[in-house]
Every structure is written in C-alpha cells, then in structure tokens.
Amino acid sequence: MHKKELKKANGDLFFEADRKGANSFIYVNWIGIQSIETIMMGANQILSILKQAPCAAILNSNKELIGPWDDGALFMGGKWVLEANTLGVVHFAHVLSPGIYGQRSFQKFYQLAHHYLQIETFDTENEAEAWLLS
Fold first, then answer.
1. In the chain, N or C: fewer CB atoms in 10 Å?
2. What would you report as the CA-atom Rg of the chain, rounded to the nearest whole angstrom?
3. Are the CB atoms for 15 and 30 separated by under 8 Å?
4. Domains of the chain
5. Which among 47, 49, 48, 42 has a CA at the least distance from the CA of 18?
6. What is the per-residue pLDDT across 69-104, written as a single tens digit (0 to 9) for each?
7. Is the pTM of this model over 0.85?
8. Cα–Cα–Cα angle for 117, 127, 112, nearest 5°?
9. Residue 85 host element (H or E)
10. In this structure, what are the phi and psi dihedrals at residue 108, rounded to the nearest 5 degrees?
C-alpha cells in the first residue's frame, strides 16, 4: 500500500495513513485543525485500508494536530471503533497532541473506545511504535 493522503478543499493536507512494519500496524497522522467532516473522511479511509487487508494495530498520531476534535471523538469512539474492531483492530497506540484541547478530546474518545481496544498513550511516535512491536 502506498501512503494515503487527504487534503481539504484549499489544498491543505490534513491526514496521512500508511502500513508499517510488514503490516504490523497502520500509521495514521492527523495534521492541523480538524472538523467533523475531515475526521469522518480520515476515519473512513482507515476502514477502507483495513477492508483491503486486516491489521490488528493502529498508531494514531496527533503530534501535528491543532485544537479540539470533540465531535470527531464521539464519532470515532462510537460507530468507528466498532467497525475497526470488527475488522481486526485490537491495539491502538495514541500519540498525544501537544495542546490541552486535543488531549481533552482524546479523553472523550478513550471513554467510549477503551471497551473495544487496548489503548495506550505516548508522547512520541517512537515510543508508540515500540509498544506496538513488542
């Protein structure tokens, strides 16, 4: 699989996804300010990748995310997590955003999703990858 990128109407990149480590995990990077629309587009892209070839783990990076994503957290922690889990995802390594608003949104996602996925948080992508590969 080649890296998948999604851009906003103005051309700004807001999402990247790629398989890593011989399909050990799917790397996802959220970039900039997110809306419910961009989150739904990215989340559906992840599901499409999983449907092509199942994978048990996701490294979800928010290191480049700006601001809150509360509405997206509710979507991701509700409908999306059920579909991802059905497609084989059990491990979710989350790299926290540098800002408090993004971290608070993650807590909303976590409250809904931790029943379906083993979720761990990290400050760096290297730490998250090491956990997934351990």
1. C
2. 13
3. yes
4. 4-133 (3.30.750.24)
5. 49
6. 999 999 999 999 999 999 999 999 999 999 999 999
7. yes
8. 25
9. helix 81-86
10. -65, -45
3-state SS of 29-49 is EEEEECCHHHHHHHHHHHHHH
Rounded to 5 degrees, what angle do the CA atoms 77, 73, 14 make? 120
Give dist(CA 125, CA 60) in Å, integer. Answer: 9
* Residue of 103, 38, 111 whose CA lies nearest to 74: 111
Q: Return the number of other C-beta atoms located less than 10 Å from residue 92's C-beta.
A: 26
> Using an 8 Å Cβ cutoff, are 96 and 121 in contact?
yes
Phi-psi bin for 7: left (phi > 0), alpha (psi -120 to 50), beta? Answer: beta
User: What residues contact 84, with CB distance under 8 A and at least 6 apart?
Assistant: 46, 47, 50, 58, 116, 117
